[in-house]
């Protein structure tokens, strides 16, 4: 397959042509076009943690990690989906700094402050 053919395939694909039409146009077999387009549309992905190439299984959700171990250690580092990352925040009532977990979405350092902050009263 020449670069020219590749360009033509990509261009025709973008215009919404089917494999058959493209095959006719560039003079290659339909299955060649199909494989080329599939590779384009499903680029190989790599484990976000260790960079290992991931095998995408047709019909399954695309994986981001090669293993649970990598998923865990990536989440530990970047904490996007990790709800158990602790962070420091300020109590909305007494303004004391305290540590909490993202999953808890706590605004107050203690139950006492929570009650006072929510319902007023000193
Ligand atoms: Zn990995
Ligand atoms: Zn407080």
What would your notes on this structure say?
The protein has 122 residues and is an alpha+beta fold. The chain folds into 3 domains: 3-40; 43-83, no CATH class; 86-119, no CATH class. The protein is 43% helix and 11% strand. The chain has helices at 3-14, 19-26, 30-41, 68-78, 111-119; strands at residues 45-46, 53-54, 86-90, 97-101. The protein has a two-stranded antiparallel ribbon. A two-stranded antiparallel ribbon has the order 3-4. Helix 1 runs antiparallel to helix 2 (19-26) and helix 2 packs across helix 3 (30-41). The radius of gyration is 26 Å and the shape is elongated. The model has no long low-confidence stretch (mean pLDDT 85). Bound molecules: zinc ion (ZN) (2 copies). Residues 91, 93-94, 96, 108-110, 113 line the site of one zinc ion.
Question: Could you state the order of secondary-structure elements as H and E?
Answer: HHHEEHEEH
Radius of gyration, taken over Cα atoms and rounded to an integer in Å: 26 Å
Number of helices: 5
Beta fraction: 5-15%
Oligomer: single chain
Helical fraction:
40-55%
Total domain count:
3
Broad structural category:
alpha+beta
The strands making up the biggest β-sheet line up spatially as: 1-2
- Major β-sheet, in short? 2 strands, antiparallel
Task: Count every beta strand, where a strand is a DSSP E run of 2 or more residues.
Answer: 4
Distance between the termini: 79 Å
Shape: elongated
């Amino acid at each position: 397959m020449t670069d020219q053919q590749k360009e033509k395939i990509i261009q025709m694909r973008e215009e919404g042509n089917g494999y058959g039409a493209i095959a006719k146009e560039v003079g290659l077999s339909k299955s060649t076009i199909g494989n080329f387009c599939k590779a384009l549309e499903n680029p190989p992905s790599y484990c976000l943690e260790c960079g290992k190439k991931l095998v995408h299984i047709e019909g399954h959700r695309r994986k981001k990690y090669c293993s649970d171990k990598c998923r865990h250690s990536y989440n530990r580092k970047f904490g996007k989906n990790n709800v158990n990352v602790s962070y420091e925040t300020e109590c909305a009532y007494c303004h004391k700094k305290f540590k909490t977990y993202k999953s808890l979405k706590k605004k107050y350092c203690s139950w006492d402050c929570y009650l006072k902050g929510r319902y007023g009263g000193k």
